[in-house]
Amino acid sequence: TVDAESLSHVYDGAGHGIKAAEASDAKGTTIEYSTDGESWSGTIPQFTEYREEGYLVHVRAKNDNYSNVAEADVVFRITKRPIKVAAGILETEYDGSEKAVTEFTYTVSNKENTAGALKDHKVSAVLKNNKRTEAGEQTVSVEENSVRILSGEADVTKNYAVSLEDGKLTVKRKDGL
């Protein structure tokens, strides 16, 4: 028999694969891996990007002392990396000109490297309801599906689980008319 274990890893832009398989009789046994069931290698396949269905890895153990080939299928998953994108906050006094919240913030990679934007990734977003001239206040939002995350020129947004947070624009009344 061959023992192979499914694993998962939070997206971090690096390659990851299943745990090395083991055969019930290691002496003289060759373990091979395949992602298509046709091309086999002794190297564990590596995966870098999120894919909803995960990555199917075929594992087989061959040994000249046995008449059969032991096989197993496992699924390796890259899970989406959580990131929070928040519209900015602006509080200003009325002066007759249009005011706008133009900034947003986002979480950066945490110490454990399991959440936030990776160091070399650039985040962009579109803000809505972010302009006001008259005194008053309003909620500013990040437009749904507007967040884009790039690694160089490559769009890697699909690898992130994006949550949105509102901001606020406040134009305070001016004292004395």
Give the topology:
Layout: E1 2-3, E2 8-10, E3 22-23, E4 30-34, E5 55-62, E6 70-79, E7 81-87, E8 89-93, E9 99-100, E10 104-106, E11 121-124, E12 127-128, E13 131-132, E14 136-142, E15 148-151, E16 154-155, E17 160-165, E18 167-172
Parallel strand pairs: 2-6, 7-17, 8-18
Antiparallel strand pairs: 1-3, 4-5, 5-6, 7-10, 9-13, 11-15, 12-14, 14-18, 15-16
Task: Give an overview of the whole structure.
Helix content is 0%, strand content 45%. The mean pLDDT is 95. With 177 residues, the chain is mainly β. The protein folds into 2 domains: 2-79, Immunoglobulin-like (Sandwich); 81-172, Ribosomal Protein L9, domain 2, CATH 3.10.430. The chain has a 4-stranded mixed beta sheet, with no helix packed on it.
Briefly say what this structure is.
The protein has 177 residues and is mainly beta. It contains no helices and 18 strands.
Largest sheet: 4 strands, mixed
CATH architecture field of the largest domain:
Roll
CATH topology of the largest domain: Ribosomal Protein L9, domain 2
Number of beta-strand segments: 18
Question: Low-confidence spans: pLDDT under 50, at least 5 residues?
Answer: none
Radius of gyration of CA atoms, rounded to a whole number: 26 Å
Beta-strand proportion: over 45%
Helix content: under 10%
Distance N to C terminus: 87 Å
Briefly note the structural class of the backbone.
mainly beta
Q: How many helical elements?
A: 0
Mean pLDDT: 95
Strand ordering within the main sheet: 2-6-5-4
Q: Please write the CATH class name of the largest domain.
A: Alpha Beta
How would you spell out the order of helices and strands? Answer: EEEEEEEEEEEEEEEEEE
Whole-number total of structural domains: 2
Instruction: Describe the global form.
Output: rod-shaped
